[in-house]
Amino acid sequence: MDSRIAANRRLWNEWARINQDSALYDMASFRAGQTSLKHIELEEVGEVAGKSLLHLQCHFGQDTLSWARLGARATGIDLSPEAVARAEALARDLGIEARFICANVLDPKELGAAQFDLVFTSYGAINWLPDLAAWARVIARHLKPGGRFHMVEFHPIISMLDDDAKEISSGYFNSGEALRFESTSSYAGGAHAPIECYEWPHSLAEIVQALLDAGLTLSGLKEFPYCVHPCWNFLVESEPGRYVVKHHPGKLPLLFSISARK
């Protein structure tokens, strides 16, 4: 395994231990039956009952299990063995049928030749991947003919902003070089010992082109002037469940969604 991916796996093992108890993930409400899915993906993915669904980079399984609660035959894959173990335990505790696999999303040999009606990924996933061409080929390979891919992600513009969203601190385009950080806390809150990690910026055009090059047909592309997660200090809530940059409310795209078909 690429040493940078291995470093990220160590980080996500730690975050899996921290995040399950965080306010952001609100496990009490989830255990009581509340979905972790947001309105964007619910509206765009639509009816999933009876359909097979592959969730890429599923963390400890909340979204995967939310799709399963809606009737999907859901499979989640994640790089972190800690996250997968916690996802499996959560599924057992709640009596929800879902499958979880520990695998590298860029080369998930553990999936074999399995194909799905739907492939889904969301919120803070692809910035951990160095090779979107490989990622898109995995999506195409594991979709049935006529199957649909859906993603909702943080807009790449967010990664350009400094901690106060007042200055541009990094470039928009992918230079091929990893950005190295030393993490001491989770985005969901909770401190931990320093762990190195690596991220890669991906422009909107790079993401779309990777999917097109893999043979998928784009059916939808949207941008949203708000975020559904309060993950950054520069965000303020403009209305329930919607967060904008406090210095530029409504002026910057903070999320985007893509729909594609095989």
- CA radius of gyration is 17 Å
CATH architecture: 3-Layer(aba) Sandwich
Number of strands: 11
Q: List the strand order in the largest sheet.
A: 3-2-1-4-5-11-8
Number of helices: 7
Flag low-confidence runs. none
Structural class: alpha/beta
Q: Let me know the CATH homologous superfamily.
A: Vaccinia Virus protein VP39
Number of domains: 1
Largest sheet: 7 strands, mixed
Level-1 CATH class name: Alpha Beta
CATH topology: Rossmann fold
- The whole-number mean of residue pLDDT values reads 96
Order of helices and strands: HHHEHEHEEHEEEHEEEE
Task: Please supply descriptive tags for the structure shown above.
262 residues, alpha/beta, Rossmann fold, 7-stranded mixed beta sheet, two-stranded antiparallel sheet, 7 helices, 27% helix, globular
What is shown here, in short?
The protein is α/β, with parallel strands linked by helices and 262 residues long. The protein has a single domain, classed as Rossmann fold (3-Layer(aba) Sandwich). The protein has helices at residues 3-19, 27-31, 39-45, 62-69, 81-94, 132-141, 204-213, and strands at residues 52-56, 73-78, 99-102, 116-122, 143-154, 179-185, 191-199, 217-224, 235-239, 242-245, 255-261.
Protein model, in words:
- With 262 residues, the protein is of the alpha/beta class.
- The chain has a single domain (3-261), classed as Vaccinia Virus protein VP39 (Rossmann fold), CATH 3.40.50.150.
- It is built from seven helices and eleven strands.
- It has helices at 3-19, 27-31, 39-45, 62-69, 81-94, 132-141, 204-213, and strands spanning 52-56, 73-78, 99-102, 116-122, 143-154, 179-185, 191-199, 217-224, 235-239, 242-245, 255-261.
- The strands form three sheets. A seven-stranded mixed beta sheet has the order 3-2-1-4-5-11-8, with helices on both faces. A two-stranded antiparallel ribbon has the order 6-7.
- Strand 2 (73-78), helix 5 and strand 3 form a beta-alpha-beta unit.
- The radius of gyration is 17 Å and the shape is globular.
- It starts with a helix and ends with a strand.
- The relative contact order is 0.16.
